[in-house]
User: Fold this.
Amino acid sequence: MGRRRALAAGSGLVAGAFLPLAGASRTAAAAPAYTNPVIWQDFADIDVIRVGATYYASASTMHYSPGAPVLRSYDLVNWEIAGHSVPVLDFGAKYDLTGARGYVRGIWASSLAYRPSNRTFYWLGQIDFARTYVYTATDVEGPWSRLTTISTPYYDAGLLVDTDDTLYVAYGNTTISVAQLSRDGRTQVRTQQVFTTPSSVGTLEGSRFYKINGQYYIFLTRPANGQYILKSSSGPFGPYTMRQVLLDLRGPIPGGGVPHQGGLVQTQNGAWYYLAFVDAYPGGRMPALAPVTWTPDGWPVVQLVNGAWGTSYPSPAVPTPPRQVTPMTGVDTFDGTRLKPRWEWNHNPDNTRWSVGNGLTLRTATVTNDLYWARNTLTHRIQGPTSTATALLDFSAMRDGDRAGLALLRDSSAWIGLKRDGGTARVAMVNGLTMDGNWNTTGTGTEVASAPVSGGRIWLRASADIRPGAARPGTFSYSTDGTNFTRLGPAFSLGNDWRFFMGYRFALFNHATRALGGAVRVSRFELSTP
Assistant:
């Protein structure tokens, strides 16, 4: 059983792409180099494609909303977040934090593809082992809309747009199947089992589906330490033969895991690359890029450095990018009319109780003493290996019983923020927010340090070390002038167990413990690295 399935008990190419000669993916020795991970933020289960001169990738987001971010790059190394394929997780009340919770459910490994015939992007993924959803857009920035719901849950799906414009889906865990969709992509025409994983290999999942030089390939992961590939010369329904791509390969992040899953993509000049992810908790799963060559008989070979996935390779030879991508770090003043795509809510928000423009206003949306139940908690990925988030908070409109601040959020969490009680506010550091293995709350937090505050605004700061391996610290501090910061509370030990899947995030929150009506305004948020 795959680790995700046990816990819960697209194509990456231009269709019909041609293989270069073996070794053609090597770039000139004088080319500038890139360093892995190419993104030191949590983007897992990647699907990667190229459309013209632009690369796109999709990733898992579980219970965060909007879901399925679409990343964009012009060189496979520098990426930005362009949008989200799933605008809202409208798959049941548990994704709204109303009576139920969807932690570690939602958007798992899914697929992103482009269909040239109608110039449309397709996102496909299953939810809760119940059914599959397909969303489409003509621009990755949106709007994305639901095309259809299919009753077959395509677990860990890979979508292929064939050279004749037929849509196929490879999916499954250990038993791998292929489905053919109708011409309009709305229904399943046929599905057939095409491969059973040998017991000597164990589990295979995470399908990516390609057609290259007339051959059909299903790229599969052995979680969490291997990658295999199936090849068919007889059509999408097989029969398929299998070959190992990598197993127990040393990765590029010290203390991290084996690069695996992800997908293959071909550059404009015929070079091939593999964009995988590396388990690197407490931060999450980080994308890493390596060049690929092909054997004369059509099997991919990852190019290694001293027997390992390289920490550095020559940069892909691509045309000069038309512009610089938007950094994933820096300052956000919440201008404009909507949130920037770097942000995702913890479950779906109550959209009547937040706004942007002249800062981010968070009005209390939930009465609870449990942050894991509080709606409208807004999250931001942490930049590795270490980074700091600083938020300027106006708390003058808080009401008695309100709690607002900046958290390090995961299944074991801590925060710094304001507590208003008895008509006065204090800044506090709280830890001991915990969940069990079924994602039920086991601890709502203990205040371990506090200080009186006056006035109506405060700078809150959280710093996180997300290098994998030994337990890493998170620290909290505050300032009344934005310059001089005072440490508050002990260091918080970031949990590095993989079973929550998503890594730690910075989170802005405001919830009531007595009655609704209070509000805070975040006028500035900065994510910075040393």
